[in-house]
Design a protein that fits this description.
Layout (H helix, E strand, L loop, with lengths): L1 H7 L8 E6 L20 E7 L4 H17 L21 H5 L18 E3 L10 E5 L1 H7 L11 H4 L12 E3 L2 E4 L2 E5 L5 E8 L5 E7 L16 H16 L6 E14 L8 E12 L5 H8 L3 H18 L13 E3 L7 E3 L4 H23 L1 E2 L21 E2 L24 H18 L5 H27 L6 H14 L3 H8 L26 H18 L6 H9 L9 H11 L5 H10 L33
Antiparallel strand pairs: 1-2, 2-12, 3-5, 4-10, 6-7, 8-9, 9-11, 10-11, 12-13, 14-15
Length: 625
């Protein structure tokens, strides 16, 4: 995988020069990515930074400005928890941006509008609370006793209105599997509105599966229990792994059936309906900007308005950036022109979106997470993991793994391709801003350059920490990943066990693999030799760090999880929940909230997948939900 990433995200260690393969894209349909090959979309540009510490300067200035914007909130008393009626609704999105004059749910093209006001319309029959997240309630300053209210399931199924909410569905477009799809929008997600807590943090509440909207097209606007359990659990699991993500407050059943053809094979069946309450600072996507940029001159001001909105509420540190020599970057081209991020807040914003996206994807690669549907309408401008559909964590290490049956023909969204796809998506996003004349081509290219640099920097740090090394060793890590792919080694369990290897070069050769024997299964003598050679090199590298085995083990176990949300674990919880037993969903949530802890008695949740886990609908899923 690393060689693939290195080929597609060319990067040098020099702070004065960096090279990157890219080409300015258009909003038109593009080709899919092929596994194991560098993307064809790219051609080389060279950028020369104006100072040795330019990248660090941007980060430090941005961080200082962020701290200034939060000044004065540290001493706010948040000891008092609120009931649902006391939540502080702000609803800036519908108050400040252009909306649809109609409020009906008839499927249609919605022009010159960022949203349509709609009410949840899902039918319910004795809805029940399946699971909830007290840590998300804490973000909202919501009293956890509110989960015990008899009307709580009614409210969060959308059947009973929440006082202060102004429900709407967002309008956006996007590229799906590399093809421009036009208008998409929230086809079954209805945002209730935004809540401000006592720290002035903004949290958007959204019900997924709450009924039809104008963006539902030919669908019913509903969601089923199996996909809702997966989204609820993975949102919270990813947060606990330290990966930026949307969150989930609660999951309720509707008490009604939903017809779904899970495998698209002409055999639909009735499944239990459910609704997840998703929570994020914003659900703005790359496609929110793409749609309006694609609709011509009249809508270009909407692109600007959406950009201003995002910066004002979610990137306020960019509003007051002063012109600064330290934030000017030479492009290295013949005209010697510079990109000055302080003179164009939209350029500074595009760079930050690119870097947040790169950092997020680097973290995905670190834990073996494969999103499965990296369409541009599933990419958050806040750099959050969003829209959990047919996702999957790696079991056996396979760079070509995709959890999405729809993705099988080209494996565009396979594990190894995710960094490339992230770049391609950033290219589409910056292209939309360029069409609206918010960015120059040089500024757009620079944002993509920064994506590449940020991804490689973060990825190298992550892999260095996973191995407990003092510094990045490309050869050692490349050889490791090659061996893991050949022998289909379990990604999570291998790195967890690796911390048991001692930095002792005198260990007899026939004992070197003992700490790893639980993951090096059924390998022949030739492969044992390959692994023994690697472990020798690894021990040699460790012996130069001066870190004790005990200290390194603690450090490695803090970044290598013992527990991940494997698909078969989800399926076990789903099977029980579909029979009315929600205990396994709640237990699995509890385990995934502490993924780096040993959790004695919970070892079964760290086991390799059983044979039944490889059946269709468990290890791989479609987009149907």
């Amino acid at each position: 995988m690393l060689s693939h990433i290195s080929a597609s995200l060319s990067h040098t260690s020099s702070t004065t020069t960096a090279s990157f393969l890219l080409r300015r894209p258009s909003l038109r349909p593009r080709f899919p990515f092929c596994p194991y090959k560098p993307s064809k979309l790219q051609k080389q540009h060279r950028f020369v930074f104006s100072s040795m510490d330019s990248a660090a300067t941007v980060d430090s200035v941005a961080n200082d400005l962020k701290k200034q914007s939060l000044k004065g909130t540290e001493n706010v008393d948040i000891s008092r928890k609120l009931n649902l009626e006391e939540l502080n609704w702000d609803n800036s999105f519908v108050c400040e941006l252009p909306g649809d004059p109609r409020s009906d749910c008839i499927p249609r093209e919605v022009l010159h509008a960022c949203y349509t006001k709609v009410l949840p319309s899902v039918k319910v029959d004795n809805p029940q609370l399946v699971a909830w997240s007290e840590s998300v309630a804490e973000l909202l300053e919501l009293d956890p006793k509110e989960f015990e209210r008899p009307d709580f399931p009614l409210i969060f199924s959308g059947a009973s209105p929440l006082v202060g909410a102004m429900p709407y569905a967002q309008n956006y477009g996007g590229h799906q599997f590399g093809m421009w799809a036009g208008q998409l929008g929230d086809g079954r997600a209805i945002t209730l509105g935004e809540i401000l807590n006592s720290k002035s943090q903004r949290w958007e509440l959204q019900l997924k599966g709450a009924g039809k909207t104008p963006y539902s097209r030919f669908a019913d606007g509903l969601a089923v229990l199996r996909s809702s359990i997966r989204e609820f659990l993975c949102s919270e699991a990813m947060h606990s792994l330290g990966i930026p993500t949307t969150r989930a407050l609660c999951l309720v059943t509707t008490g009604k059936g939903v017809m779904r053809d899970m495998f698209y094979d002409g055999n639909p069946k009735d499944e239990p309906g459910a609704i997840v309450c998703r929570v994020a600072q914003s659900f703005l996507r790359f496609g929110s900007y793409q749609l309006h940029a694609s609709r011509g001159k009249k809508d270009l001001e909407i692109v600007r308005a959406l950009a201003d909105y995002a910066i004002r509420y979610h990137f306020p540190h960019l509003e007051n950036m002063a012109r600064s020599e330290s934030m000017s970057f030479n492009t290295g081209e013949e005209d010697k022109s510079a990109v000055d991020l302080s003179s164009n807040k939209y350029a500074a914003w595009a760079v930050e979106v690119a870097e947040r996206t790169a950092s997020m994807i680097a973290r995905w690669q670190g834990v073996g997470f494969t999103h499965g549907v990296m369409n541009t309408d599933n990419m958050s401008v806040l750099g959050l993991t969003i829209d959990y559909g047919p996702f999957g964590f790696l079991d056996a290490f396979d760079p070509s793994f995709t959890p999405n049956t729809t993705d099988l023909p080209g494996r565009r969204y396979c594990f190894a391709n995710q960094p490339d796809v992230g770049l391609w998506n950033i290219a589409q996003f910056t292209s939309a801003l360029s069409i609206a004349e918010l960015l120059s081509d040089k500024e757009a290219d620079y944002a993509m350059e920064r994506y590449g640099n940020k991804f490689m920097d973060d990825y190298q740090v992550i892999m260095t920490r996973k191995l407990g090394l003092a510094k990045y060793n490309k050869k050692l890590i490349s050889e490791l990943l090659k061996n893991m792919a050949i022998d289909k080694v379990d990604y999570t369990n291998f790195f967890r066990l690796l911390s048991n290897v001692k930095a002792d070069p005198t260990i007899p050769e026939d004992q070197l693999l003992i700490p790893l024997k639980a993951v090096l299964l059924d390998i022949g003598e030739e492969r044992k030799e390959a692994w023994t050679t690697w472990v020798k090199s690894y021990i040699q590298e460790l012996s130069t760090t001066g870190v004790s085995d005990e200290e390194r083990k603690v450090s490695m176990n803090s970044v290598n999880p013992k527990y991940i949300l494997r698909n078969y674990l989800c399926q076990t919880a789903i099977d029980a929940a579909e029979q009315g037993d929600f205990g396994e969903v709640r237990q699995l949530l509890k385990v995934m909230q502490c993924p780096f802890d040993e959790q004695p008695g919970m070892e079964k949740y760290a086991r390799l997948p059983p044979a039944w886990a490889y059946r269709p609908g468990v290890c791989m899923l479609s987009c149907s939900s």
